[in-house]
Specification:
Strand 5, helix 4 and strand 6 form a beta-alpha-beta unit. The protein is built from nine helices and nine strands. It starts with a strand and ends in a 10-residue tail after the last helix. It folds into two domains: 167 residues, Rossmann fold (3-Layer(aba) Sandwich); 113 residues, GMP Synthetase, Chain A, domain 3 (2-Layer Sandwich). A six-stranded mixed β-sheet has the order 2-3-1-4-5-6, with helices on both faces. Strands 7-8-9 form a three-stranded mixed β-sheet. By secondary structure, the protein is α/β, with parallel strands linked by helices. It is 37% helix and 23% strand. Helix 6 packs across helix 8.
Length: 301
C-alpha cells in the first residue's frame, strides 16, 4: 500500500518555509535568502518517507499585499493551501503570534475546512522553553491544530517527526512522481530561481523585488554540458548599472556563483550567459507572471 498527497507550507515571509522544504526534500529546490518575500511561485518539492510520497508546496509568504505582484503571490499561497491534503502553518518561535500570524489564522478558518492542519513552531533554539510552551498554548487556543511540532528547519531538529506524521496523514494513492524526482518545476525555472537568489543576496534591499530572471534558452551540447542563456529584467535603467557593477564585476560574480551552483545541482558542466534588459512595465506583463508560475489575473485589485 502506497500513499501520496500534497502538503502546503504556509506562513509569514521569512518564517523558514523554503529552508524546511529543502531540509525535507534533502536538496535545494527553493530559493533561500535572509530577505523576505523571495519565494514567488508555488514550488513543489518531493520527499519519500517509507511508502509515502510527500509533495510539498512551498507557497509565497503571506503578507499584506500592496502591488499587483504582491496580490498574485498571496493568491498563489492561499491557492496552494486550498489544493493541499495537509496544511502546515509555520511560525517563528522568537516572533510569536504576530499581527500577520493573526491575519493568517482568520483566513485559515475558512480555507482549512476539510483539511488536516498542523502547527510547526520554527527556530526553537532562539527562545527558552517557558516562552515556547506559552506560545504553543496561545496558538492552540486560537485554532484547533491537529498537532504541534517544535522544530529548527535550519538545524534539522524535529523535522523527521514532522515528516513521519505527514507521511501517515496522506491518502492511499499511487505515487505521483518517479521515486528519484525531487521537484516538479522545469529545470529552466529552477535555473532562473538560482540566479535570482544570487541577485537577491548580492544587491541592496529594494532592488530584488523589482527584477525577475527568465531562462530564455537551454541548449544540450554533445560533450554533455549545457549552455543556458538568461535574461534579467529590471524596471528602471538605473537598476541595470547596479547589477552590472564597476566594469561588470557584479554581474560576473553573480553569474559565476549561479553557474557553480547549477553545475553542482546538475552534476555536469554549465555555460551560463546572463544579459540585463530594462522593461519598465514588466510588473504589468502577463507573460512575466506565467514565467514565475503565478496567475496574472490574481494580481487584480
Amino acid at each position: 500500500m502506497t500513499k501520496a498527497g500534497f502538503v502546503a507550507l504556509i506562513g509569514e515571509p521569512n518564517a523558514g518555509k523554503s529552508t524546511l522544504l529543502n531540509r525535507m526534500v534533502g536538496a535545494k529546490v527553493s530559493i533561500v535568502t535572509h530577505k523576505v518575500q523571495t519565494t514567488r511561485a508555488r514550488i513543489r518539492g518531493v520527499a519519500m518517507e517509507g511508502d509515502s510520497q510527500i509533495v510539498f508546496v512551498d507557497t509565497p509568504g503571506l503578507f499584506k499585499p500592496r502591488r499587483r505582484l504582491d496580490r498574485a503571490m498571496v493568491a498563489a499561497a492561499w491557492g496552494g493551501a486550498a489544493d493541499a491534503d495537509v496544511i502546515v502553518l509555520l511560525i517563528e518561535a522568537h516572533r510569536g503570534k504576530t499581527e500577520g500570524v493573526e491575519r493568517i489564522l482568520e483566513n485559515l478558518a475558512e480555507v482549512a475546512k476539510g483539511h488536516r492542519v498542523a502547527l510547526a513552531i520554527n527556530k526553537i533554539d532562539r527562545v527558552k522553553s517557558d516562552v515556547l510552551l506559552a506560545l504553543t498554548q496561545r496558538m492552540n487556543d486560537a485554532f484547533a491544530f491537529e498537532k504541534t511540532f517544535m522544530i529548527s528547519a535550519e538545524r534539522g531538529y524535529g523535522v523527521d517527526d514532522l515528516r513521519k506524521w505527514l507521511a501517515d496523514e496522506l491518502p492511499e494513492s499511487p505515487w505521483l512522481y518517479p521515486e528519484d524526482q525531487i521537484a516538479d518545476l522545469p529545470m529552466r525555472m529552477i535555473a532562473a530561481e538560482m540566479t535570482r537568489e544570487k541577485l537577491t543576496l548580492r544587491l541592496h534591499q529594494e532592488l530584488p523585488y523589482q527584477l525577475t530572471v527568465e531562462t530564455e534558452n537551454w541548449e544540450e551540447r554533445k560533450d554533455g554540458s549545457a549552455r543556458i542563456d538568461q535574461v534579467i529584467y529590471v524596471a528602471r535603467d538605473g537598476h541595470k548599472g547596479i547589477i552590472l557593477g564597476n566594469k561588470g564585476e557584479t554581474i560576473k560574480a553573480i553569474s559565476k556563483a549561479s553557474r557553480e551552483e547549477l553545475e553542482e545541482f546538475l552534476g555536469r558542466k554549465v555555460h551560463l550567459f546572463c544579459q540585463i534588459k530594462v522593461r519598465e512595465k514588466w510588473l504589468d506583463e502577463a507573460e512575466r507572471y506565467s514565467e514565475m508560475g503565478l496567475d496574472f489575473k490574481d494580481g487584480n485589485a
